[in-house]
Design a protein that fits this description.
454 residues; alpha/beta; FAD/NAD(P)-binding domain; Enolase-like, domain 1; 3 domains; 7-stranded mixed beta sheet; 5-stranded parallel beta sheet; 22 strands; Pyr_nuc-diS_OxRdtase; oxidoreductase; redox-active center; FAD
């Protein structure tokens, strides 16, 4: 499908209509360039249709159910609360469809040519599409993202063994689910389905969220255990026999569904990169410089396809920068920090690093001393702030309900080179979770108001 009349040559060609790709296309159009975008599936890519938005939609639904079931402590009695999985599925799909249509509208409004099909580089200046369309370009942006990594012996069959995308498109609630993998995807999936009543097992090579601060992970583990999730630590899946996963410690898990969530792989095959000067690194990611240009200087690349962190908001920022570079602006992708959020219970959000060293100090404030957390019975959590000898903020970790909304303050502080004193002296509204950030900063000066360290 082509939305308009495609010219023989465009200023900017974008391969991939995900969050990074369509943002690059829109920014390019805003800068006066003629733009064409090629997308093989749905506009919005994995984020809008299969990953970020669907997962957070289902997490919200599962949280509502859990809150209803636990509302007796607040004096609210609800009997027979349950989820209708068909209605839940329709809502989840409707959210993605609404967002997809919104992206299509924006592209049309900006006069961006949207071409449906598989794109392949015929040369460093031409793209061929599987629908027979071909066109030349002045600059191109590769924004093809990633796909679920595969695990030998556990091939996806769409029924028993599925990837995270399929797990977010179920129109029923499984009785049992075994998740292979222990990163944020596994934790989010496991917790949301456990809240809906699924018996969940997680197979972890080492442990869940092993790259995160263990003070934070300990609180998530506590909640997972309360939900009945069993974490098989320090084991590997060795074989699959029917619905039974055999593990390296000679134990086994029988499950209705097996979800493989062992990471993401860059999507680079079939793009005709061999017809260009674009180079890949040893892990298959597209190699780029600070200007996001590949070894083929008129071809740029952004998002998951160029490596970690493989997060949508990084791709969005790089999409803006790539379009500006393609238009001739002297800009670079020079952001100091990419914040990350795990939508677990409680949420974990981090910007920068909170590791303590001889040159970096860390201050901490517990949510158990925070008025809003006590009122809402969400006391499991804390805020940590890392700062150097000059007081410059180097990292912030927030473990709390609504941590996803609070972490932007931390990212801004790091980008601006703000000090811990700047945070301490900034008035935060009361009563909110964000007060914990200010209290943690005040604690660094030995003057926390609502907590006594002794």
């Amino acid at each position: 499908m082509v939305m308009g009349s495609l010219p023989e040559r465009v200023d900017l060609a974008v391969v991939g209509g995900g969050v990074g790709g369509y943002v690059a296309a829109i920014r390019g159009a805003e800068l006066g360039m003629s733009v064409a975008i090629v997308e093989k599936e749905k506009m919005g890519g994995h984020c809008l249709n299969y990953a970020c938005i669907p997962s957070k939609t289902l997490i919200h639904i599962s949280d509502i159910l859990e809150e209803i079931k636990g509302s007796a402590k607040f004096g609210i009695s609800v009997e027979g609360a349950r989820i209708d999985p068909k209605i839940m599925y329709n809502w989840r799909m409707g959210v993605s469809e609404k967002l997809e249509k919104g992206v299509e509208f924006l592209c049309k409004a900006h006069k961006i040519e949207v071409i449906k099909g598989n794109a392949s580089f015929a040369s460093s200046t031409q793209i061929q599409v599987s629908n027979g369309v071909s066109f030349d370009f002045k600059n191109a942006v590769i924004a093809t993202g990633s796909e679920p990594a595969k695990l030998g012996g556990f091939d996806f069959d769409g029924k028993t063994v599925i990837d995270y995308k399929k797990a977010l498109m179920l129109d029923y609630i499984p009785h049992t689910m075994a998740i292979i993998g222990a990163g944020y995807v596994a934790v989010e999936l496991g917790m949301l389905y456990a809240k809906m009543g699924t018996k969940v097992d997680i197979v972890a090579r080492s442990d869940i969220l092993s790259r995160f601060d263990q003070d934070a992970v300990a609180l998530v583990k506590k909640r997972m255990e309360a939900l009945g999730i069993k974490i098989h630590r320090g084991v590997l899946p060795t074989a699959l026999e029917g619905n039974t996963v055999k593990l390296s410690d000679n134990s086994e898990i029988e499950s209705e569904l097996i979800v493989v969530a062992v990471g993401l792989s860059p999507f680079t095959y079939g793009l005709g990169l061999e017809n260009t000067k674009v180079k890949l690194d040893e892990k298959g990611f597209v190699k780029v410089g600070a200007d996001l240009r590949t070894d083929d200087t008129n071809i740029l690349a952004i998002g998951d396809v160029i490596g970690e962190p493989m997060l949508a908001h990084k791709a969005i920022r790089q999409g803006v920068v790539a379009a500006e570079i393609a238009s001739g602006q002297a800009t670079r992708y020079e952001n100091k920090v990419v914040p990350a959020v795990v939508f677990s219970t409680p949420e974990i959000a981090i910007a920068g690093s909170v590791a303590q060293t001889k040159d970096v100090k860390v201050t901490k404030f517990p949510l158990s001393a925070l008025g809003r957390a006590i009122a809402l019975d969400t006391e499991d959590g804390f805020v940590k702030i890392a700062y150097d000898e000059e007081g410059v903020v180097k990292g912030v970790e927030i473990v709390s309900q609504d941590a996803n909304a609070m972490i932007s303050e931390a990212a801004l502080a790091i980008e601006m080179g703000a000090t811990i004193e700047d945070i301490a002296d900034t008035i935060h509204p009361h009563p909110t979770y964000s007060e914990a950030v200010q209290e943690a900063a005040e604690a660094a000066f030995g003057k926390p108001v609502h907590f006594f360290y002794g």
